[in-house]
Design a protein that fits this description.
alpha+beta, Ubiquitin-like (UB roll), seven-stranded antiparallel sheet, four-stranded mixed sheet, 11 strands, elongated
Length: about 280
């Protein structure tokens, strides 16, 4: 009886041991297949992160416009957005919010929040063209002069300004000499209305700043189609110069008493050869 019992106990023990080993072996692969959830949770949190969008009021020409943009939008990109909405070229915009905003700043970095009021100062190209617009009588005189090839300084439309004489504060002109643009703006000249004009060449921005007593227009160089000039009889050290701002000659913005030594440099800068002067 003891032997039988001993054999049975031994068999049962062996079977139990064998079963435990088999069970242990079979569970190892399942443990390796358990997915890691940490990475999935982290990826989801990143995807769910959203940039806040704010709505601000842009004030332009006494009108208010509601404009929405992400808070991390740079001022440069915001100007491009306004160009599409209002038609004012981004290069001709100034944005004011507690001071002048710089292109590299963002809406958030300057403290602009929902409902903030941003002042836009700028002009459309049509506004600039309107300054240089001519009357029907002027066009008729220009066509007549063109047909007879009359010098610019003898044409009636230009005599109105030239007859006022040489401005006292105009920069010195030098005949038969070519010079690079000076480091200071060209000043003391006159426009068609007889008002003072100052030309500032911003080569790093590829812009020409055309300033009068009333305002400053920032013209992209590529917006100027052509530049014409001619020496003034009796004052050959100075020129009459026309900046063509539109598709026709009627859109020329005339500047009088431009120092002759800078004429070639002005043409090269405006028409795309400015690198040699930079």
């Amino acid at each position: 009886m003891e032997c039988v019992g001993s054999e049975n106990d031994s068999k049962i023990s062996n079977v139990e041991n064998h079963t435990k080993e088999d069970h242990s072996d079979s569970t190892e692969p399942s443990e390796c297949k358990i997915p890691k959830t940490d990475t999935i949770i982290n990826d989801t949190s990143v995807e769910d992160e959203k940039v806040e969008t704010i709505e601000v009021k842009v004030i332009y020409n006494k009108n208010k416009y509601d404009v929405s943009a992400p808070v991390n939008t740079t001022i440069a990109d915001f100007k491009k957005q306004l160009q599409g909405l209002l038609g004012v070229p981004d290069s001709m915009q100034k944005l004011m919010y507690k001071g002048l905003l710089q292109d590299q700043q963002s809406l958030a970095s300057v403290g602009i929040t929902k409902g903030a009021k941003i002042m836009l100062v700028g002009s459309t190209l049509n506004d600039v063209l309107a300054v240089s617009s001519v009357t029907k009588q002027d066009v008729a005189e220009l066509e007549k002069a063109s047909n007879t090839k009359e010098p610019l300084c003898r044409q009636k439309i230009h005599r109105k300004v030239l007859d006022k004489g040489l401005p006292e504060d105009v920069m010195p002109g030098i005949k038969d000499l070519k010079e690079s643009l000076p480091p200071v703006p060209l000043s003391g000249m006159l426009n068609k209305q007889g008002g003072k004009v100052r030309l500032t060449f911003k080569l790093e921005a590829d812009q020409l700043w055309l300033s009068t007593k009333e305002r400053t227009e920032k013209l992209p160089m590529q917006s100027i189609k052509n530049v014409v000039s001619e020496a003034i009889e009796g004052h050959e050290e100075y020129h009459i110069m026309g900046l063509q701002l539109g598709p026709t000659e009627a859109s020329r913005y005339w500047v009088y008493w431009v120092p002759a030594q800078y004429i070639d440099a002005i043409k090269d800068v405006v028409l795309g050869k400015w690198q040699q002067y930079f």
